[in-house]
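Task card 7
Instruction: Convert sequence to structure tokens.
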Amino acid sequence: MAREGMAPAAADTFPRLLLWHARVRPEHAALREKDLGIWQTWTWSDLAAEVRLLAAALHQLGLGRGAHVAIIGENRPRLYAAMLATQSLGAVPVPLYQDAIAAQMVYVFQDAQIEYAIVEDQEQVDKMLEVREQYPGLAHIVFDEPRGLRHYEQPGLISYDELLLRGTDFAADNAEYFDEQVAATAAGDTAALFYTSGTTGRPKGVVQTHAALIGRARAATVFDHLGPDEDVLAYLPLAWIGQNIFSYAQALFAGYTVNCPESPSTVANDMREIGPTYYFAPPRVFEAMLTQVMIRMEDAGRIKRALFHHFMEVGRRVGGRILERKPVSAAMRLRYALGDLLVYGPLRNQLGLSRVKVAYTAGEAIGPDLFAFYRSLGVNLKQLYGSTETAVFVCMQPDGQVRADSVGPPVEGVELRIAENGEVLVRSPGLLKEYHRNPEATAEVRDADGWFHTGDAGLLDADGHLRIIDRAADVGRLADGTLFAPKYIENKLKFFPQIKEAVAFGDGRDRVCAFINIDLEAVGNWAERRALAYAGYVDLASKPEVLELVAGCVDKVNADLAADPLLANTQIHRFLVLHKELDPDDDELTRTRKVRRRFVAQKYQVLVDALYAGRASEYIETEVRFEDGRVGKVAAMLELRAAKTFAPVARAA
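Output:
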């Protein structure tokens, strides 16, 4: 059943949801932003008033129904207000990744024919001016933070504050205009245009309607019994559908509070201060948290380390069972309670997870060891499955049915089917309306019967839970016919805090080889405690001691793989530690930090060939792009290593 006070069906667009909350809970916190160390609060009535005025100002600027507006920056209340004001006029917000360089944004501006951009600060303004050189159609640039922009006099450039002043008179003289525009927008109208991460090619613009996004937000809110008293932390890119659905669509439906950190560097501290009750992060964030924990444990005293490892073993045995209210002996409950007092509770508090009622991970597969670690701590971490094209929520794990190897059953309203080739097909109220200006791509993924072809390989188990194996295009077989799922192997490697990224190769080959990125912070801390001097990533990654450290991690992964009859033949035979970190600016990762596997294999073909040829070393020179757009080169002689492999472990009869 829906919670009492849930938004009515008539509030079927985001602006109508805003007005409903402003009427029902005007003094409830809608948004908080930390500025100069102090949390500033926007109530629902504050937000509604700001959106009314901004909509009037944008109308004065010429923004009309159906136009596209780029929204670029960190999570900021004014950017959320800009999205709502844009939607109030029947225009369409297009959130873009704030860390993308201008050259990567040009295609989106051209494809979406964007004339308006509302951005955070000078960094983004500079990008917009660079975009305009290649796309003159960008006529208006609105900026929030004026620092550094005093002497900018380019045409069409205006501050957010000045824009609001321009709209004041119109709003006062046309009091009914805003409500008329909100009333003119239908639930089936386009609410937002999201560009995919471009894992396998150029980004595609996913057109999502108010009905699709709000409908999925409603289903997820009811599923987890959420309400207006929840707190979330908005720290991931607003351009990513995952962050957008949690901090925008669900927030506007449920009426809970969205907290914007002061800066990316203060997220950890801000999270501890806020103590979110509803939390969402891709696996890479949980991996980074685990890395920090393990670094602190390495620096801790002998007794503290012993306590940590002892109680983590207790947690692995019964933590998940206690979370799911399954039978656990009194003795083990007592040991776990002691562990909660000495280890789990302090760790949850340090990570900012002490108030979390439910946490989700999605975006890519999470390693089972990583998943078990957080549930051992008493964090109700669950998995969900979805994509930009499905408005995120396709499958969710119900409490009491949480497993590391599945993403749960379909959410209310969703149908699933597994095609003959193993691909997961979805039919859902949250499906995309279309790919923007790309009917061919739309026809490729959505068939005549309304099934969306996800591109993921999976299966439905006896309980109706979906198991995702990997991207269908990435799942392959070794030369001997053994199933090869690279993501599964990579996730096992990334459980180790010393390994930040991994790329496994093996499809059509006689054995598996891998590229590895070390985690500079974790390995750097390890090196400093051993008085091992280094001059940077390239130097550290080439140290014999570091290669031995990584080899130990690979050996442990191989031992685990040997225990699985289906995967024993996919043990890693050879590996190398890359001389540079894989980077979105170099097109090796997407903006959501998914490996662009084919691109990496092509870019480093010489290294792949060297691994399979059995060479002991290989010279590589790689072009890199810096944050300011400059291009340089990194060169190194890499050592290629053989890994220890194990005989398959026979299962007991």
